[in-house]
């Protein structure tokens, strides 16, 4: 059966507008399309394929598990789920793990946990969730409501209530808003879709203090910033602040769909039997691949490469900014990097993405004013240099055309 980009318009719901390119093969940091053209991948399926395409350890884990057991549901448990949960508990602050299939589901579970924990422990009045403008937590009705971007909620009203949005990194606003009615403060340590904006250390520290003072849960959404992308397993480790709940997905499966909510024993106790669930959550195939990915991610050599390539990327973006003037530099953590556009180019991030694709480089936007890069964590120095060269060609093309 022959298919093309045109097939999408004929058979798919039009909620996406995918590129004309249809990738058919990937290996490491590279992709090839239907015509055999090669691209360097600085997008990783939106920070998902953190170990590159077709990593041998992930392939081996998938093949081995595929010949043993695929699915039993949570009426029973399975060995891969128990092994992955045990390893996550060993490596993080968490005492308990809930598995699901995506970041949105992990956040849905976290927000339900926060509401139920407060209701059980303090009463139904304690239900306020505090989040931040430009945050992104998923596309379910609850998660888009907690996220701070109105464009994702328009036309889906009425929305869940009890949610307060504040300016990100605003200490005074945060201190004024958190009170006895607050059940949770939800923070992305690095806002992803909101422009690759890291939280300040003071902001993260104050959130922890206020949650402790008022009996609220501190929830870190590390769906995009986690799984080694920041240069540590989870970005919050670099702030020296521990959450009560953490959500993770994307790079946890290296491309195989899996998400997880990690929690302290005290917080997790509120989701008692029957209060939440997922048919596919903890699927044996997903957890086997997730465990293989996790073991690769905690290799100190891999994290050293993230830090080295991050410095190389930041330096290269600075050079391109000076040469072409399309963006002003860079911000972010590890290999989650954003390049804010200069004033004359604001609103044109997608133009840079399209030009880069013409030169064989796949990058992303983080809103209309920020170019986003999330290359594989194991990318080589040579591939990083080649990606920057191709981005330079795209910038030169656009600058010449004005």
TrEMBL record:
CDD domains noted in UniProt: OAT_like (cd00610)
Catalytic activity, reaction form: N(2)-acetyl-L-ornithine + 2-oxoglutarate = N-acetyl-L-glutamate 5-semialdehyde + L-glutamate
Subcellular localization(s) per the UniProt record: Cytoplasm
Name of the protein in its database record: Acetylornithine aminotransferase
Designated gene of the protein: argD
Something else known: May also have succinyldiaminopimelate aminotransferase activity, thus carrying out the corresponding step in lysine biosynthesis.
Entry EC number(s): 2.6.1.11
Native source organism of the sequence: Hydrocarboniphaga daqingensis
Residues bound to pyridoxal 5'-phosphate: 103-104, 136, 221-224, 279
Principal location listed in the UniProt entry: cytoplasm
């Amino acid at each position: 059966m022959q298919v093309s980009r045109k097939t999408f318009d004929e058979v798919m719901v039009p909620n996406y507008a995918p590129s004309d390119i249809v990738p058919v093969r990937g290996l490491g940091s590279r992709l090839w399309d239907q015509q055999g053209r090669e691209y360097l991948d600085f997008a990783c399926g939106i920070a998902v394929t953190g170990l590159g395409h077709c990593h041998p350890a992930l392939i081996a884990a998938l093949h081995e598990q595929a010949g043993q057991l695929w699915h039993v549901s949570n009426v029973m448990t399975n060995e891969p789920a128990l092994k992955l949960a045990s390893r996550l508990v060993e490596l993080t602050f968490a005492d308990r793990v809930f598995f699901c299939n995506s970041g949105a589901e992990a956040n849905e579970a976290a927000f339900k946990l926060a509401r139920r924990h407060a209701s059980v422990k303090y009463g139904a009045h304690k239900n306020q969730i505090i989040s931040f403008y430009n945050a992104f937590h998923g596309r379910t009705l609850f998660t888009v409501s907690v996220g701070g971007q109105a464009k994702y909620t328009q036309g889906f009203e009425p929305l869940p209530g009890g949610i307060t949005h504040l300016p990100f990194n605003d200490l005074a606003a945060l201190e004024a808003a958190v009170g006895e009615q607050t059940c949770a403060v939800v923070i992305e340590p690095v806002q992803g879709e909101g422009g690759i904006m890291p939280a300040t250390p003071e902001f993260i520290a104050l959130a922890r203090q206020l949650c402790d003072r008022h009996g609220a849960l501190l929830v870190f959404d590390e769906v995009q910033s986690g799984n080694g992308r920041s240069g540590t397993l989870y970005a919050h480790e670099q702030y020296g602040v521990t959450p009560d709940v953490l959500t993770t997905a994307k790079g946890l499966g290296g491309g195989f769909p899996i998400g997880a909510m990690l929690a302290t024993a005290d917080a997790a106790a509120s989701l008692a039997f029957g209060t939440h669930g997922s048919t596919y959550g903890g699927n044996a195939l997903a957890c086997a691949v997730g465990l293989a990915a996790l073991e690769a991610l905690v290799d100190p050599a891999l994290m050293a490469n993230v830090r080295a390539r991050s410095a190389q990327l930041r330096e290269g973006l600075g050079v391109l900014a000076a040469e072409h003037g399309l963006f002003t530099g860079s911000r972010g953590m590890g290999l989650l990097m954003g390049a804010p556009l200069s004033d004359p180019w604001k609103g044109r991030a997608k133009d840079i993405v399209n030009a880069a694709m013409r030169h064989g480089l796949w990058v992303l936007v983080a809103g209309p004013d920020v170019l986003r890069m999330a290359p594989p964590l194991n990318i080589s120095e040579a591939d990083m240099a080649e990606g920057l060269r191709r981005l330079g060609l795209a910038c030169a093309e656009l600058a010449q055309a004005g």
